[in-house]
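Case study: SESN3 protein.
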Amino acid sequence: GRLEAVTQQMGYHPQYLDSFLKTQHYLMHMDGPLPFDCRHYIAIMAAARHQCRYLVNLHVLQFLRAGGDPQWLRGLDFIPPKLRNLNEINKILAHRPWLITKEHIEKLLKISEWSWSLAELVHAVVLLAHCHALASFVFGCGCEQDEGLGGRGLLKPLSPGNQCFCEATAGNGCSQELLRISRKRSLDSCMELDSLRERMQRIHVETEGREEMRLLQQDREEGEGQGAEVGHHSDPPAGLSPLADTDGEVTGATNLACYMQDPDFGYQDFARRDEDQTQVFRVQDYSWEDHGFSLVNRLYSDIGHLLDEKFRMVDGLQSSAMAKRQGCEPSVFKRGIWNYIHCMFGIRYDDYDYAEVNQLLERMLKVYIKTVTCYPEKTNPEMFDRFWKQFKHSEKVHVNLLILEARMQAELLYALQAITQYMI
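Here is what the predicted structure looks like once written out:
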């Protein structure tokens, strides 16, 4: 039930991993405006937008451990209207965050008995952005393939066996408190999680053959006409999309559609938007440092500091080898990647020459970044293998960390600006 595959990959950069785990733990398990079961259900909704079974399965188990109503796992039709009303901004933030407006915020805060408080909404928005961005990392680093039963893992784990990365690197970046919490939760829950997982595996094995035949047929039908720039993509093998029947038994499903509305709504190039619908987001007018940080910290105590530390941590990661290969300074190279990601979401920096992006980032790297950022579910093992053949594994993970943080900050900027406009 823990993020072993994710922490193993992030473990190539232990200081960042420490910062990530503190934020993840605070969001999900520490005092905050939202009940614990709702936090995990919001994470399920967010991960489902990108068909990320790895995160959905993880949070289904944690949702049940937190005392969540198994009926909710039947889908959005079975959850309270207050949670269901979050679906619209979940959809927009995941795919076209530039469309969010103060009207979306007002609607959630003004619905009589199902209204959200500002603090609850900020907690929910941070959760949504966190899980959308983490889904990009999961697909980008192959954790989804690692999780699939019988599937071939895309990346090699850093630590041996199934040992939690935190336990394998005690004293090497993770705080002792996090290690203590991790071990205690592991001991408390391993029997329960193993039991749930065994039932899910049995159900999956029974349907595996039928599902494989269906996917093969689907691949043949959809294989033609895939975009050349993005590269051919086949849906990952259908894993377990857990639902629950009336007595709480975990059952399998072949897709995550029950957690989504409007599944066809996806990313579209910002440059092709309707001009009268939205404008370029200028960081000079609303930035994380000058605006977003103080707002989020005021409404959801301390989360601003944790997020800010995480943004600074990824910016401070060493990338001299990457930059040297590209013939530039590390800071220049990282800023090129960061600004390219923000540019895809319509966020512009007036002091940056965007011609540098094409000079710094080769085509295959740009294709990879765009796919992992905008439609991570289309990432496949070949894409990871093809880009930067000469680069180290840790350097590729570094790129995925930049994608995770730049994407999360982009979503937060749009959502927090809309909340600010509502408040004004």
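For the exam, be able to explain this: The first helix runs from residue 4 to 10.
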